[in-house]
Amino acid sequence: MIKARATLGIGAGAPSGGSALALVPTMGALHEGHRSLIRLARERAAHVVVSIFVNPLQFGPTEDYSRYPRTFDADLEVCQAEGVDVVFAPSAEDMYPPDRQVGVSAGEMGSVVEGEFRPGHLDGVLTVVLKLFNLVQPDVAVFGQKDAQQLAMIRRMVADLNLPVSIVGAPTVREPDGLALSSRNRYLSPDDRAVALALSRALTAGSALRAPAEIRRAALAVLEAEPSLALDYLVLVDPATFAEVGDDHAGEAILAVAARVGATRLIDNVTLSLH
Ligand code: AMP
Prior knowledge:
This protein is α/β, with parallel strands linked by helices and 275 residues long. The chain has helices at 32-44, 72-81, 92-95, 114-117, 121-136, 148-160, 190-207, 212-224; strands at residues 2-4, 21-26, 47-52, 86-88, 140-144, 166-170, 229-237, 251-261, 264-274. It has a six-stranded parallel beta sheet, sandwiched between helices. Strands 7-8-9 form a three-stranded antiparallel beta sheet, covered by helices on one side.
């Protein structure tokens, strides 16, 4: 395994097929969810690069950039155990020189749902992902469905900017009690963690139903029963556009939730098939 803290000299335009290269972008503090992405990448490509970069551009001024967990040595062990070929861990200074001017705009789709509560977040995500694609030049890149709007926006960027990368979405890995794994879960006290379970419980309650209004009502009832949970949003949206679906919607929809438990903000979602 090669560890690159600053730059990485992978040859341009890695050939596809047997020697295809897959990229798994992460912010580190690796857990089983990240491991599942790495395994999927290994199924899709002969070589796997994991990037570890806490991207300052996707954090708002009052968010947790400085206290985001950084566990580089443990992350390297995870990557080694999963057979990762290269870990790419650039510094913020290398990624963003002070005279930087140009970035990616997530457009209107980047200002709804997560974008409404985290202005500029999806611009920051798309900018770093495009830079990682250009630096690593992967044939395939794997992202988790856990960050559903991020995944949808990356697919949009690849289509709108004609990027030569195949995007693979990976299912959300959960604890046995339903809590979606997240690097931020380590902030939760035992009491917080019990409260946080309302997110997955709400999604399960909504998943049992088929009519959009009933789905929203059932999921909201679960969240409202937990007074120490501060809800940012609960939405039922079109998976491709993240626009709210109407009552006559047929096909797939994403039920997505974001809420704060103490100082920790958590997101989760589930894909439903409505007919
Ligand atoms: P992060 O390090 O949080 O930026 O996440 C890196 C990648 O891992 C993203 O594509 C996430 O969607 C994905 N990811 C995070 N949590 C999970 C999870 N519980 N299951 C599957 N993928 C996940």
